[in-house]
Design brief:
By secondary structure, the chain is an alpha+beta fold. The protein is 33% helix and 14% strand. The chain has twelve helices and eleven strands. The strands form three sheets. The protein has a six-stranded antiparallel β-sheet, with helices on both faces. α1 packs antiparallel against α12 and α2 crosses α6.
Length: 353
Amino acid sequence: MTHTTDRIEDLLQTGVRDEVYPGAVWAVGNADGIEASGAVGLLDPDHPDEPMRLDTVFDVASLTKILAVWSTIGTLVEEGKLQLHTPLGTFWDKVAGHPLARATAHHLLTHTAGLPLRANLRNLYGTDPQDIRDGVLHEALLRPPGEAVEYTDRAALVLGYLAEHLSGQPLDRLATDRVWNPLGMTQTCFGPLPDAEAARCAPTEYDETTGTHLKGTAHDFSARLLDGVCGIAGTFSVLDDLARFLRHMLAPTQAAFGPAWIKESLRVQTGDLTPARGLFWHPAPGTDPTEDIWVHYGFTGTGMWISQTRGRWAVLLTNKLHFNRDREPLTVIRNAFRAALMLPGEPNPPRRS
């Protein structure tokens, strides 16, 4: 991996020099662990004596949809508590008689439920968490379920509420009990973070209300509105924990969600509709679904890739929002990062027993 590691370090240093992000942490690995990793740049450009570190804590934003929602929904499916193709209104009293009753968990996981495209929670429903939940679950659909693939944060928000309904636990406790603790992800949690952990956190966007960059508090406004915990965003994690999660996806144990859920999620579930989607995961941009390279991103500048065919995963964590919201420069780096690490045609290495 030496030559590849040098290429990755050069690529990510370019992002630092061009102020795409203050710093980045990355790793690539297989079912046995991390093959190569590194950290470049600074935690905070206002503090040039603090380098980005392998144990930096990141606001992973929409990776919450994978780490907390997709994973726990998988455990509920495998326990028989949820059937993906059953209309929600037939078993969930809260949505019965409302437009969402026609949708299924499968529609939500493939972003085909016809939900409104923007969260817009405070403007529509106020600031009370119960009013927000009621409003989201009773909202009109933009179109009938199954007609189009349209990414919306609301899909994960609804699924988070559904997971809470079926399990009788709040989402943060559910994810901790069913996924994070069993996989040894001891540094993964919803925020806001205690001061000690926040000090190790990569700062994100400047917050005019506090006059400082957010650090240990979720960037996503919906998560902050809901006291830090929701299906959309709000999770904080570190490189090692994400490696544990992705290793499990390549060689699942009995600890959390199992191989059937993983296999079903990492295949196209949207038929002829475009863009192609699995269950929350989607084919990496610039690849064909047959290449079997799946990805999910986070708005703060994070991303995870996985390929069962290659027996390989990769993680890139940045705090690009410290500088701006311009997506294109990071998109170029992400695509180059994926191309360098998820090599086409590479053989599948042996898996752990």
